[in-house]
Amino acid sequence: MTDAVSPQAVRAERAFTVDAVAESLARRISDGEFEMGAWIRQAKLAEEYGVSRTPATLALSRLEALGVVERIANRGFRVRLPSARDVAEVIEVRGLLEGHAAYLAAQRASAEQLGRLHRAVEQFREVVSGLRAGRSEEWARARWHAANALFHATVFEAAGNGQLTTSSELLHHRLPRNTSWSAMQGDVRLLSQNANEHEAIALAIELHDGARARNLAFAHLETARDLMVARLQELA
Predict the structure, then answer these.
(1) Residue 97's CB: how many other CB atoms inside 10 A?
(2) Which portions of this protein are annotated as coiled-coil regions (predicted)?
(3) Can you give the pLDDT at residue 116?
(4) Which end of the chain has the smaller Cβ count within 10 Å, N or C?
(5) How many angstroms separate the CA atoms of 148 and 119, rounded?
(6) Is the pLDDT of residue 226 over 70?
(7) What is the average pLDDT across 161-166?
(8) Whole-model pTM?
(9) Coil vs helix vs strand at 202
(10) What is the mean pLDDT of residues 213-224?
(11) Distance between CA 3 and CA 152 in Å, rounded?
(12) CA geometry: angle at 194 spanning 190 and 200, to 5°?
């Protein structure tokens, strides 16, 4: 799929086609806007995109065929719940890709890229502090997603290998971004630990310790895998 457009852009361009809705929704799911198992109502989707229910349903059926969503009899569509095996397999590959990206980033990261990594870590910390101060989960989730996207995109950018980035992007259709947020369920202890893991990776990259950066990135994803599998067992 090509880069998707937002619901607003779809409406603005009057590109009210099944393809446009399916493409945009697939990107939103891949970006982690919808949590694992989240229900997607045809009526709400039709309203968001300014189409009738028929194109909305057809778009969901198309994503069902791709394995992005699943249809539950008499209930509708929801973001597909991956199996524990799906999670393990995707995380294993992501670990290899992100570990190698971190290894290369330790050799190639610029001062500006290092600054972005540390800024992302600061944003993770701000989310944890905000939750402890009583901020809403909606506020925290949006900021966590942004920090997570900034951190990991910067690692791949610093690695300087476009094929690594492309391969990683393809995996997000199998296991959407930010599923670890859903697995941590706003638990400040888990979020703080996750922030610590990101900071350790950033420091290893800054110190040009490629082997440590790779190992920490892989361990970070293994922790995410365990959390996701436990969450899936709750949702099943």
Answers:
(1) 20
(2) none
(3) 98
(4) C
(5) 11
(6) yes
(7) 94
(8) 0.80
(9) helix
(10) 96
(11) 18
(12) 145
